[in-house]
Amino acid sequence: MVEELTPQCSAKGCRAAAGWALRWNNPKLHEPAYRKTWLACDQHRETLGDFLSVRGFLREVTEFSATA
Fold this sequence. Notes:
The protein is an alpha+beta fold. The protein is built from one helix and three strands. The longest helix has 10 residues, at 45-54.
């Protein structure tokens, strides 16, 4: 039997389903076009985004859907 996994929020300790993709990079380490992704639930979208923004890392926030 195959268990289906639901993408979860990247906030520490949060198990909520992801609804947002926060795409970021660290310009001191990554090429300009490179993107890393944190997933966020509605509750943590702003706090995770603020964490990345303060450091100058946040590039874009988009709605996330696990279906391809």
